[in-house]
């Protein structure tokens, strides 16, 4: 079967892609930027990639006409706090226009459980998209999921941050709202099993795990699985805005995502029936089992995808390719170089930078800079990195975004997503003479930008000097 996979570089898409390939399907991945599809060359060689922005009017012949089915996995919740619902409606309408040019038979849409009478803006938007997709000229299968628990999922990472960092919590009253979490493994199973199944055509199904829990119970059960205790008290005084700031500063989530999540956390997300799991004979994992499975992936360094790598986890939503050419004029630079004896070892160190490994010198200073960035509305350091020693273009790396990661040419180029009065690049490159070049480039925005650069020059002297020495040491 030939399948169009939208949102291919998103959290779900990255998990679904290898499963579909394993099942023997031909996959056409629809992405905004081909360079940002973070998969190994082995997978890239098996797929067809098309660049499409579903917020724009679709062009003719932009996808193959012999498409049999499609997955609609496009969401805009964390890209805006105001008009994400309009953006999602626009993407759904443009999707319908695009696939009307093909021979498509089925579309599978992953939505959210929408059984509460008073839906949040986020869940109402998901329902509106569902209504738009039902107008398409194909058979629609809608899977309405509860909170998804898996390594790298936004919900799991927020719970993990809260529990690991705050053994004692004073929380808003929405932690008493009921929800029904589902393991990412089960979501992927449902998504693949409905493909081509005529019994699921033109119908909407709830999918969820077996446990109905409050958010407070989810936090307690997480601590239980991890072998420690936590204490949680609820107060009625936290407004949605205060709750959003609370999530933003304690966890790795972005403020936009936090605001939209808090809005949804006031609504019960509980499944109405088990029709689909009965039809497909699927027995979903419990919440505790989902946590165990997530940590097995984390401990084995097998986290396939993370919400943090999406562009919406950072500050910049535009195509980052325009930043690959580091400017030469009107910029300030800190360039250091050192001869290395074993370039392969040094290259592995470069590819492992950030996250748990740290920055090889003055990590406490990097943490202070990350905290200051959070205070001013930036991304901070909490995003870390998805894999300890694999990097792809488009990945997030603490408060940087990977622009270029080419092991063959021994070059790594990062672009700063921290709050700055200008634009910043950090580049590592080993040349043909085995000389490691480390270059920090800053393009200041006005006088303020230049004052910022010169004020941190003393720190650069120690941090960048110590960093290159430790990366190059034998």
UniProtKB/TrEMBL annotation:
Question: Which organism encodes this protein?
Answer: Maribacter sedimenticola
Q: Where is the NAD(P)-binding domain?
A: 7-147
Q: Which InterPro entries match?
A: DUF2867, NAD(P)-bd_dom, NAD(P)-bd_dom_sf, NAD(P)-dependent_oxidoreduct
Q: Lineage of the source organism? A: Bacteria, Pseudomonadati, Bacteroidota, Flavobacteriia, Flavobacteriales
List the keywords (alphabetical): Membrane, Transmembrane, Transmembrane helix
Q: Does the keyword Membrane apply?
A: yes
Q: Any idea what this protein is called?
A: Uncharacterized conserved protein YbjT, contains NAD(P)-binding and DUF2867 domains
Q: Which Pfam families match?
A: DUF2867, NAD_binding_10
The record lists the membrane-crossing segments as 451-472
